[in-house]
């Protein structure tokens, strides 16, 4: 196979091939991290095997082109795919289908641009799919079926919904300038703002001041100005979310208000999608999957943002069936063994889900697998 | 005189010199524009001559190093100083003092860095002063005296105050990430957010949608996401403020709420400074100058943000004497003649001011002139 740009990424392919096993790649690319999994092409069955066979998992950093630029995003994606293939003992000649689900894919032009360079990497007979990462997250909660609503809240946030008859809608996901206030970036930026306001006399004193300054090893709030200018990357700012949660848990009113406002923002995104798609039916009580992913929702702290968002949504849409996949796959050397990858969501606090749960990269692979099997 | 970096900027100095007249440079550098004026060294008098003798005025773009980087900021500043000297028929050998008042100067380290390269441009006997641009704006309203409070609201916003005994305080001015919501950037970002929220079902419909889309020549709100990512410069976003004002004037509730919130934010910055410095005395009624500058406050529209901010401040501090300098100098080839440069502020709506008014670059020159005369 011809080597293209970043040829060295594919150097491992000079090694012996792995005996003709056909594989599928699923990639979940976000602003904070990118995960690629490699699974074998299995035959269709209902239900799917549990756990799903996953041959390998590889992880890397940001692959949102809006955040790091086109070249860096492409290199990250290409490298993490190569890593997953290498770990699985396969190479590109074994690949039958690839699904990239990447944040920052908002328009057909984004999709086409990525498809173009993906086509340079894989030969013409490989099926290629490019979507927004929200799609993979939904598929991860529904085992490849596109129905329901997904809420992602990590560094950024977006709500995406799909109906069984193929309609879709989204809310938020517009980036920090355009007011994604429930996101990790939004929460942390509000906390930093609260520190500045307390310092210059525009707002109440808050525990956030000492906790954020000590976390960042700064001595005065006015040093935050320089700190944000040095490197305004969203992920760097969003990394302060745990500090906000700690302050809220310790009773700080300012931190509590920021988290409560964020809960309402996140719930509002979901409600807007559910309403536009009538996902809950005419009586408002129909059941639909509500997949929730991302660091802000998975923090698993006493002040549990994800749980509060679910409560807020269930008040209006009691038919929502929350599903929260854990970032764990069945075969992963880099995670502790003995941990069930599909923990149930909040035990019995919320309605039990009838869906198996996998991580978004597996959701992406399932989308590719579904399309590939249907086309074969 | 030796030529330094960007030597070509000073090429005009090879021309004949202008006969030994001593001059002072005052520079007001902001995120949107930079203005340098050249005035002769005049003898001290009380009152100062009105109008002040200004030999030349030159303008350029952004000189905030946080916004365009150190090199571009330096080049802009150096070029606009050279332009002012060239227009005045002087050159560097005539300069006795320079005051640069530049936004983004927040720390002694910022000040020292600029002083270092400024020293490369001017010989050792020239007095050099570097301040935050708020200082020049205040001096422009008080004819060189540092007393009172200044509110700047252009692309960014900051409130700065000084007492007669030399204490100072500031509020806001922390940049877009840290919540300068009353700024031009803040107003426009909230308007863009409102468009996205209306589009995806999270907020009420607003006239802002059609007006902003047609201004930007876009066809759908989701294209705003790409638009903000292409070039996230604050000034580009702040340029949408007039659209927000137009929508508010036409009765749009969303736009009106954004402007009203911004008025309260801007007034709050001033109140925080006035309170910390006790500028209004123990009875809260003492008189103090309140200098107001920047595009957001000078828009001079029916929905007049500056007037509303003043009203809001006067409710708490009736002693505030609002002063709003016009961006006009007495000797300017690039402005229409016959226009009085020191328009009174809002006619009789507010208290008359006892101060002459000049533009911030002249304020910077007055600061340099004061220090130079006192030291001579």
From TrEMBL, chains A, B:
It holds the Pfam family BcrAD_BadFG. Its EC number is 2.7.1.59. This is N-acetyl-D-glucosamine kinase. It is an enzyme of class 2 (transferase). Belongs to the eukaryotic-type N-acetylglucosamine kinase family. One of its GO terms (molecular function) is N-acetylglucosamine kinase activity. It comes from the Eukaryota. Transmembrane segments: none annotated. Residues 25-324 form the ATPase BadF/BadG/BcrA/BcrD type domain. InterPro entries: ATPase_BadF, ATPase_NBD, Euk-type_GlcNAc_Kinase.
């Amino acid at each position: 196979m011809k080597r293209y740009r970043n040829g060295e990424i594919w150097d491992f392919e000079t090694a012996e091939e792995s005996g003709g096993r056909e594989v599928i790649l699923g990639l979940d690319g976000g602003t904070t991290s990118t995960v690629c999994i490699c699974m074998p092409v299995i035959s269709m069955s209902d239900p799917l095997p549990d756990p799903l066979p996953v041959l390998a998992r590889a992880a890397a950093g940001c692959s949102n082109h809006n955040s790091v630029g086109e070249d860096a995003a492409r290199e990250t994606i290409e490298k993490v795919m190569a890593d997953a293939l290498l770990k699985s003992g396969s190479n590109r000649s074994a690949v039958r289908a690839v699904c990239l689900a990447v944040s920052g894919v908002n328009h057909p032009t984004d999709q086409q641009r990525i498809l173009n360079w993906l086509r340079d990497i894989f030969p013409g007979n490989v099926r290629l799919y490019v979507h927004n990462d929200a799609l993979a997250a939904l598929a991860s909660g529904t085992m490849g079926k596109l129905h329901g609503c997904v809420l992602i809240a990590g560094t950024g946030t977006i709500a995406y919904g799909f109906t069984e008859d193929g309609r879709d809608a989204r809310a938020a996901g517009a980036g920090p300038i355009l007011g994604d206030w429930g996101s990790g970036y939004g929460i942390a930026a509000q906390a930093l703002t609260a520190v500045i306001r307390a310092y210059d006399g525009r707002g109440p004193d808050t525990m956030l001041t000492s906790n954020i300054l000590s976390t960042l090893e700064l001595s005065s709030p006015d040093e935050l100005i320089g700190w944000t200018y040095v490197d305004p990357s969203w992920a760097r700012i969003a990394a302060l979310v745990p500090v906000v949660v700690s302050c809220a848990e310790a009773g700080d009113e300012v931190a509590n208000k920021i988290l409560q406002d964020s809960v309402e923002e996140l719930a509002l995104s979901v409600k807007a999608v559910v309403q536009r798609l009538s996902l809950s039916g005419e009586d408002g009580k129909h059941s639909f999957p509500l997949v929730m992913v991302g660091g802000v929702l998975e923090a698993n702290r006493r002040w549990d943002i994800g749980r509060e968002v679910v409560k807020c949504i269930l008040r209006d849409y009691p038919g929502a069936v929350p599903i929260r996949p854990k970032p764990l796959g069945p075969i992963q050397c880099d995670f502790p063994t003995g941990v069930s990858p599909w923990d149930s969501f909040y035990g019995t606090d919320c309605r039990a889900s009838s869906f198996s749960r996998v991580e978004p990269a597996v959701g992406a692979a399932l989308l590719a697998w579904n399309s590939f099997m249907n086309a074969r």
